[in-house]
Write a structure and sequence with these properties.
alpha/beta; 3 strands; 42% helix; elongated
Length: 77
Amino acid sequence: VVSSTASTAPVLTRELMQRVAKQRRYRPLVIIDIAVPRDAEPAVTEIDGIYLFDIDDLERVVASTMQARQAAADVAT
C-alpha cells in the first residue's frame, strides 16, 4: 500500500488495519506512507504481518546509499 493523502488525521488506523490483516489472514502487508502529516498510525506496526515505512525511513535509505556511492566513488578516483 502506498499512501499519500491530504488528510489531517490518520486514515490507516490501527482498528482499520486490524480488520484488514484479519481478512488477509495476516499475510504480510507493506505500507509506505509518504504523506505529511502521516496517513498511518504508528500503532499499525503492532499488528502481525504489517510493516510500515514512512518518508523518514525512505530518507534514511537514500542517505545510506548516498554514503555508499560516495565511498565507492572515492575509491575509484
